[in-house]
Amino acid sequence: MVRLLTSKVNPARISRARCASSSRPDAESFDIHGDTFIVAASPVESARLVLNSELDFVKSNQSAIGHYLAEHIYCRGYLDVSKSPELNLGPINIFIPPLSAALKDRFQIEIRSIRRPADRSQILRLTGSAAMDPNWDNRVEIAPGRVDRHGTPMASTILKASSPDEERTKTMLDVLHEVASSLGGKWSSRPLLLPRGASYHEAGTLRIALSENESAADADSRLLGASNLFVGDGAAFPSIGVANPILTLTAMGYRLADRLVELARA
């Protein structure tokens, strides 16, 4: 497990990663040296690593590092459609994309069948996921006085829905009920908002953005002020898109790999 990144001669260049054994917390730390470093531990843990490293370029780039944390706001309900023969013909998996490109419609609905063997009832799981808008106040920061078993300061998060986020979520819930009404059936469990963090789709914190004062990384996913430190996970997202983010993450990973090859050849 990487605890810290350090620079030795050139303050803009990472020279080593200070590591600890995840299976032996009492073991001594050890260093890994390299020419190029990529943080890809999740938007929360990647930001934690960069903030804990106390590098010179981090201190001069406080406007965006750790900020703009976002995720998907989830709601979920279960609809019993056992008395609807047309919905009992087999597995169902339906995806309803955003209704338009407008910011207010940045949500989607998924309908998936769940058959209960005990009574052979047909249940549809209806899930809505709404994207949060980028917000500087939503952030990862170092939690004072809290350390992990290796003595490394832990992260805490501040993640609150804005007024547009709440309005978008309300619209999503209304659409979810409209979909349920058109399907017929009866709610066995009415839609409820899931706790914050339940989506596991965090984004931002080391983001790429058009404006430098809102960016932590450049268009190559390289941390501003650093020459050899790159972001390889959803922390680089300027905003969270619709669910699920895995295809975008994969595409950005390939893009970063291609760029690193180009830089190495140059």
Structural notes for this entry:
Strand 7 (107-116) and strand 8 (121-131) form a beta hairpin. The mean pLDDT is 90. The protein is an alpha+beta fold. The chain is built from 4 helices and 12 strands, in the order E-E-E-E-H-H-E-E-E-E-E-E-H-E-E-H. It has helices spanning 43-53, 56-59, 163-183, 246-265; strands spanning 2-6, 16-19, 30-33, 37-39, 72-80, 93-96, 107-116, 121-131, 139-147, 153-158, 186-193, 229-231. It has 2 domains: 2-69 and 136-158 and 200-265, 3-Layer(bba) Sandwich (FAD/NAD(P)-binding domain); 72-134 and 162-193, Alpha-Beta Plaits. The radius of gyration is 22 Å and the shape is elongated. The strands form 4 sheets. It has a 5-stranded antiparallel β-sheet with strand order 6-7-8-5-11, with helices on one face. It has a 3-stranded antiparallel β-sheet with strand order 1-2-3.
What is the structure about, briefly put?
With 266 residues, this protein is an alpha+beta fold.
Describe the protein's topology.
Elements: E1 2-6, E2 16-19, E3 30-33, E4 37-39, H1 43-53, H2 56-59, E5 72-80, E6 93-96, E7 107-116, E8 121-131, E9 139-147, E10 153-158, H3 163-183, E11 186-193, E12 229-231, H4 246-265
Parallel strand pairs: 4-12
Antiparallel strand pairs: 1-2, 2-3, 5-8, 5-11, 6-7, 7-8, 9-10
Superfamily (CATH H level) name of the largest domain: FAD/NAD(P)-binding domain
Counted by DSSP, the helix tally is 4
- Total strands: the figure is 12
Q: Can you tell me the number of structural domains?
A: 2
Tell me the strand percentage band. Answer: 25-35%
Shape: elongated
| Class of secondary structure makeup | alpha+beta
CATH topology tier name of the largest domain: FAD/NAD(P)-binding domain
Please state how the strands of the largest beta sheet are arranged side by side: 6-7-8-5-11
Assembly type of the chains comes to single chain
Write down the overall mean pLDDT: 90
Note poorly predicted spans: none
At CATH level 2, the architecture of the largest domain is 3-Layer(bba) Sandwich
Determine the fraction of residues in helical runs and give it as a percent range: 10-25%
Roughly how many Å is the radius of gyration?
Answer: 22 Å
Query: Could you name the CATH class of the largest domain?
Result: Alpha Beta
Q: Give the ordered list of helices and strands.
A: EEEEHHEEEEEEHEEH
Report the span from N to C terminus: 31 Å
The profile of the biggest β sheet is: 5 strands, antiparallel
